[in-house]
Write a structure and sequence with these properties.
The chain has four helices and eleven strands. A hairpin with a 7-residue loop joins strand 4 and strand 5. The protein folds into two domains: 119 residues, Alpha-Beta Plaits (2-Layer Sandwich), CATH 3.30.70; 72 residues, no CATH class. It is elongated. About 11% of the residues have low confidence. It is an alpha+beta fold.
Length: 209
């Protein structure tokens, strides 16, 4: 599994009001052979900051050159998959103290600590979902939501067709302009054809086994 590198690059040059552009960050990264897969700009407590995801594990030597080229004392670095443990890399890294997840920004604009708390909430919801209706149960189990693509199967002599979930209610799904009744495994009949076995059709998420 490839480990990507996430950076926080301050865009303010020293104590001046001059700012580095996102284009300049990309230019320096490209010159150093780093492939940027995502870049977003957010406001930290002190300055505009570029949150940069780099493909693979960038070396600290390369990131040191990047910080120096962008006139930054240090760049905050996080390698994906190591939790909240990161490091600072740059000419004056020692002056900024240890890596602090309370200040490290993610692409959402939240700090690493805040994002972790949000992720924990989501995991708690998934572990104990608030399922008030049968439709909620089906959507939770299959991961379906409005806009998802599903396969419509069961037409005699026809290959499965693909359609989009347009609406979800307690009793039915609207997919590709057709309404499917809800049953235990999302199997259904077209409205008006419930007594004809030849028109029995069912849905399943695209890519499922």
């Amino acid at each position: 599994m490839t480990t990507n590198t996430i950076l926080n690059v301050g865009l303010k040059i020293g104590t001046t009001d001059r700012l580095i552009t996102a284009g300049r960050v990309l230019q320096v990264a490209e010159h150093l052979g780093l492939r940027v897969t995502k870049l977003s700009i957010h406001e930290s407590n002190t300055e505009p900051t570029a949150v940069v995801t780099i493909e693979g594990r960038a070396s600290t030597a390369t990131l040191f050159i990047m910080a120096d080229s962008l006139h930054q004392d240090a760049i905050a670095v996080l390698y994906e998959g190591v939790g909240n443990g990161g490091l600072l890399v740059g000419p004056k890294e020692d002056e900024w103290g240890p890596f602090n997840p309370d200040y490290f920004l993610t692409h959402s604009g939240l700090t690493l600590t805040e994002q972790g708390a949000e992720d924990d909430k989501l995991l708690a919801q998934l572990a104990a979902p608030d399922l008030k209706t049968f439709a909620d149960v089906q959507v939770w189990l299959l991961g379906l939501k409005v806009g998802d693509e599903v396969e419509v199967r069961g037409e005699m002599g026809r290959e499965p067709a693909r359609a989009t979930v347009e609406r979800i209610t307690v009793t039915q799904l609207v997919v590709g302009g057709e309404r499917f009744r809800r049953t235990g495994n999302l199997a259904g009949y077209r409205i008006g054809d419930r007594d004809s076995s030849s028109t029995r059709r069912w849905l399943r998420p695209v890519g499922s086994a």
